[in-house]
Amino acid sequence: MLAERRHQLILRALRSGGPAAVADLSERLGVSAATVRRDLVKLEEMGLLTRVHGGAVVEEGDQPFAEVAEIRVSEKDAIAACAADMIEDGQSVLLDIGTTAYRLARRLHGRRLTVITSNLVVYEELADDAGIELVLLGGMVRREYRSLVGFLTEDNLRQLHADWLFMGTSGVRPGGHVMDTTVVEVPVKRAMIKAGEKVVLLADAGKFPGTGMAKVCGPEDLDVVVTNASSDAATCAAFEEAGAKVVQV
Fold first, then answer.
1. Which residues, including other chains, have CB under 8 Å from residue 225's CB and lie 6 or more apart?
2. Structural domains in the chain?
3. Which Gene3D superfamilies match (predicted)?
4. For the whole model, what pTM was predicted?
């Protein structure tokens, strides 16, 4: 395997699963531990990761949408199916950016709903469904992340109200704080929370514990958390203590 390909796979593993040990990366890539250590040194010199004792970690901005869309698809589909069952016909639904919201949008075809979103992939998925009233928020386009952000997006949200907000996250801290790795997305997410009657966090087990330098909200701002059964039990308990219902699929 070429070094460049190994570097891509190492970064993808660290982004999707958090900190990883040299031994785990060695087994995953089918190369020696010495080779992995050399790769980690090179990637650290390039500023793409940080080496820690026994392994490495990545703390950076969101991955491009197309790359994230390939990660933990079955888990996201199970979470999306549960979320779709919460929605009643005739209701308004606010969908956040991200791939789990997209998986949810795929399950809304044929429903009589109003869908509001800043997620361009959600828009593309539902644009031809005549039964859905589709509201695309304005804003500046982030092409790689397929989202709209900025003051125009926030202004639009201040004029709207939705029965449901289904929100994604870059990661969840052990105390239940919802985080994001990209600062520009945080004001939009906060505006969405204010616009939603019921706030539902969609987070697969890979987000526990998660990374992110910017706090979006605390557990007290959530009504429901939908996750898969292998998620961190202590964090789920923190959600419940703050009054959020945790639904495990």
1. 200, 201, 203, 236, 239, 244, 245, 246, 247
2. 3-57 (1.10.10.10), 67-248 (3.40.50.1360)
3. 3.40.50.1360, Winged helix-like DNA-binding domain superfamily/Winged helix DNA-binding domain
4. 0.74
- Edge-first strand order for the sheet with 178-180 is 171-172, 178-180, 214-217
3-state secondary structure 5-35: HHHHHHHHHHHHHCCEEHHHHHHHHCCCHHH
- Is residue 121 within 8 A of residue 147, CB to CB? The reply is no
Residue where the block lists tokens 């197309």: 66
- Residue among 89, 65, 111, 101 nearest 189 (CA): 101
CA distance 200 to 36: 39
pLDDT tens digit sequence for 137-161: 999 998 878 899 999 999 999 999 9
CB 29 within 8 A of CB 14: no
Rounded to an integer, what distance in angstroms lies between the CA atom of residue 113 and that of residue 239? 29
Average pLDDT over residues 126-144: 93
Average pLDDT over residues 163-189: 90
CA quadruple 156, 178, 80, 87: dihedral sign = negative
Q: How far apart are CA 162 and CA 86, in angstroms?
A: 14
Name beta bridge partners: 178: 172, 217
Query: DSSP labels for 132-192?
Result: EEEEE---EEETTTTEEESHHHHHHHHT--EEEEEE--SEE-TTS-EEES-GGGHHHHHHH
* Burial 117-132, CB ≥16 within 10 A → b, else e: bbbbbbbebbeebeeb
The pair phi, psi for residue 218, each rounded to 5°, is -100, 170
- CA–CA separation, 36 vs 22, rounded Å? 6
